[in-house]
C-alpha cells in the first residue's frame, strides 16, 4: 500500500511544458511594439495642445505661490531679470521688495535646466515619446519635492529651505519650457505671457474664425490666468504647499498623457532651439 501511494504521487507530478516558438515570437512582438511606441516622435495635435494648456495651468499655480512667499518667480524670468538688475543698482531694496539670493537661484537653475534639456534633446530627439515622458516625470518629481520641503520645513522667505523650493521649481520650469518649444507650438510657451499678448494684438487675422495660432494663444493666456487665480485661492485658503502639490499632480497627468499622444506619420519641422 505504501508503494501504491508513492506511485500515485509520482504519477501526479506536473509536466513542464517547454516554451514554444509561438510563445517566444509573441513575447518578442510585444516587446517590439512597446519599443516602437516609445521611440515614436510625438506630433503636433489637439491632444498635445491640451497637454501644454494643462502645463500652463500648473505654471500659473506655482507662480501664484512663489512670488508672495519668496519675492521672486519660479518661471517668469522677465521679472526675475528686472529684480536682479535692481539688486545691483539699489541694494537697499534687497530683503524688502525682493530677495536677491532667491532670484539668483531661480534664474540660474531655470537657465541650467533649459541648457541641459535642450542640448540633450538635440542628441536624443526632442519629440521622442520616451524622452518626453522621462523629462516630465523628472519635472513632476521636482515639483513634488518642492511641496515636500514646504510641508517639512515651513515657508521662510529666505535661507536654505527657501532656495531649495525655488531651485526645484525653477529647474522644472526651465525644462518644461524647452519641451514646449520642441513640439513646434510656440504660441503655448507654458510660462511667458508677454510675447503671447503682443502676438495676439498684432495678429491681422485676429477675428477670423479659422485661426489656429490665435486660438492657441487665447487658450494659453486663459489657462495661465485661471491657473494663477486657482493657485492664489488655494494659497489663501489652504497653503502654498498644497497649491504646489496640486500643480505636481497636474504635471503627473500630463506625463501619463504623453504615453497616449498621437505620433506623426510624416516628417514635421522640429524647432531649432
TrEMBL record:
Question: Which positions, given as ranges, span the membrane?
Answer: 98-118, 130-149, 218-235, 241-260
Q: Which Pfam families match?
A: DUF1275
| Record InterPro entries | DUF1275
Q: Where are the residues of the annotated region Disordered?
A: 1-34
Keywords of the record, alphabetical order, are: Membrane, Transmembrane, Transmembrane helix
Basic and acidic residues: bias regions: 1-10
The answer on whether this UniProt entry bears the keyword Phosphoprotein reads: no
Key word Cell membrane present = no
Entry's PANTHER family? DUF1275 DOMAIN-CONTAINING PROTEIN
**Annotated protein name in UniProt:** DUF1275 domain protein
Amino acid at each position: 500500500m505504501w508503494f501504491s501511494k508513492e506511485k500515485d504521487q509520482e504519477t501526479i507530478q506536473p509536466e513542464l511544458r517547454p516554451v514554444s516558438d509561438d510563445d517566444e515570437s509573441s513575447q518578442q512582438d510585444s516587446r517590439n511594439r512597446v519599443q516602437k511606441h516609445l521611440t515614436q516622435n510625438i506630433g503636433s495635435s489637439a491632444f498635445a495642445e491640451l497637454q501644454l494648456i494643462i502645463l500652463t495651468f500648473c505654471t500659473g499655480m506655482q507662480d501664484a505661490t512663489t512670488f508672495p512667499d519668496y519675492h521672486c518667480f519660479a518661471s517668469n524670468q522677465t521679472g526675475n531679470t528686472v529684480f536682479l538688475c535692481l539688486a545691483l543698482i539699489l541694494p537697499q531694496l534687497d530683503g524688502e521688495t525682493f530677495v536677491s539670493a532667491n532670484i539668483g537661484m531661480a534664474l540660474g537653475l531655470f537657465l541650467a535646466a533649459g541648457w541641459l534639456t535642450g542640448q540633450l534633446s538635440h542628441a536624443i530627439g526632442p519629440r521622442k515619446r520616451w524622452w518626453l515622458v522621462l523629462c516630465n516625470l523628472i519635472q513632476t518629481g521636482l515639483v513634488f519635492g518642492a511641496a515636500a520641503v514646504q510641508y517639512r520645513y515651513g515657508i521662510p522667505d529666505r535661507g536654505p529651505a527657501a532656495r531649495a523650493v525655488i531651485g526645484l521649481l525653477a529647474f522644472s520650469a526651465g525644462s518644461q519650457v524647452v519641451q514646449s518649444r520642441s513640439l513646434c507650438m510656440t504660441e503655448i510657451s507654458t510660462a511667458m505671457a508677454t510675447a503671447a499678448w503682443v502676438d495676439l494684438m498684432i495678429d491681422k487675422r485676429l477675428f477670423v474664425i479659422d485661426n489656429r495660432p490665435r486660438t492657441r494663444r487665447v487658450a494659453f493666456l486663459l489657462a495661465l490666468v485661471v491657473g494663477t487665480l486657482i493657485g492664489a485661492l488655494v494659497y489663501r485658503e489652504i497653503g502654498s504647499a498644497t497649491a504646489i502639490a496640486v500643480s505636481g499632480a497636474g504635471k503627473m497627468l500630463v506625463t501619463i498623457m504623453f504615453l497616449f499622444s498621437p505620433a506623426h506619420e510624416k516628417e514635421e519641422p522640429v524647432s531649432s532651439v
